[in-house]
Design brief:
The chain is of the alpha/beta class. The chain folds into two domains: 111 residues, Glutaredoxin (3-Layer(aba) Sandwich); 108 residues, Endoplasmic reticulum resident protein 29, C-terminal domain (Endoplasmic reticulum protein erp29, Up-down Bundle). Helices cover 51% and strands 13% of the residues. The protein is built from nine helices and five strands; from the N terminus they run βαβαβαββαααααα. The protein has a five-stranded mixed β-sheet, sandwiched between helices. The longest helix is centred in the last third of the chain and has 30 residues. One of its GO terms (cellular component) is endoplasmic reticulum lumen. It comes from Perkinsus marinus (strain ATCC 50983 / TXsc). This is Endoplasmic reticulum protein ERp29, putative. InterPro entries: ERp29, ERp29_C, ERp29_C_sf, ERp29_N, Thioredoxin-like_sf. Pfam families: ERp29, ERp29_N.
Length: 243
């Protein structure tokens, strides 16, 4: 039995040809529709369940899905998927007022959480999902490294520290890394993140047999935030060169 069989995702509307148009026609909020196979290993269901849970807090996104069976596929559902060029699953399509805004498909059977969240963010949908970096702090990093003012940077660091303790973010598993990494960069310089990525990655590789599971998970989470930092530094550098 596949792990996804029988999974009912809380907050996700199951669509068919009769309900599809009615649901996506909302002009009160965006509608994210996931087209996927019914028989997967469950990872995509878990991911979409996390997105649905996060969207319920924001109130600006409705999550829905069309499940295509691998065996004995429903002709009606297949036709629906075909009409939206969504036969090659998984595909995520964002609608507003009945019109397609954007779509995401990375070509993999299992969807990349970070890239999916980034795509949503780029389309104005900001979600706080465990295991993914936080759009609010990603922006703060961008502002911080784009600024040449020490006062502005100090202000942004304080902002990150306060936000990390707020009710909105304090329970998130990655949030503690944002202010600590930014504080380190403020002392050691903008190249701190790239150097720290090398150090942590090397440690994970060289000591892979001696690092326990919890420590490895913690270091992997830190790397995710360090990558955000490194990208922010690189983007700021490119923008400065173009001036």
């Amino acid at each position: 039995m596949n792990l996804s069989e029988g999974i009912i995702l809380k907050g996700v509307v199951s669509l068919d040809p009769l309900t599809f148009d009615k649901v996506i026609s909302s002009n009160q909020h965006h509608v994210l529709v996931r087209f996927d196979a019914e028989a997967t290993d469950g990872a995509n269901e878990i991911l979409f369940g996390e997105i649905a849970q996060a969207s319920a807090k924001g109130k600006n996104l409705l999550t829905a899905e069309v499940k295509l069976e691998k065996e004995g596929r429903s002709p009606e559902l297949l036709e629906l998927a075909k009409s939206y060029n969504a036969e090659n699953v998984p595909v995520f399509i964002l609608f507003f007022d009945g019109k397609e805004v954007s779509r995401y498909r990375d070509g993999n059977t299992l969807t990349d959480k970070t890239k999916l969240i980034e795509w949503l963010t780029n389309n104005g949908i900001e979600l706080t999902v465990m295991g993914a970096t936080l759009p609010y702090f990603n922006r703060l990093f961008g502002e911080y490294f784009s600024s040449q003012s020490s006062d502005k940077r100090a202000e942004l660091l304080k902002k990150a520290q306060e936000a990390a303790l707020s009710d909105e973010f304090k329970e998130h598993d990655l949030v503690k890394f944002f202010p600590t990494i930014l504080e380190k960069a403020s002392v050691k310089g903008d190249d701190y993140c790239s150097k720290e990525i090398e150090r942590v990655s090397s440690m994970l590789e060289k000591k892979k047999d001696s690092i326990n599971k919890d420590k490895r998970a913690e270091m992997t989470k830190k790397l995710k935030v360090l990558e955000v930092c490194k990208e922010a530094v690189e983007n700021a550098s490119k923008a400065s060169e173009e001036l």
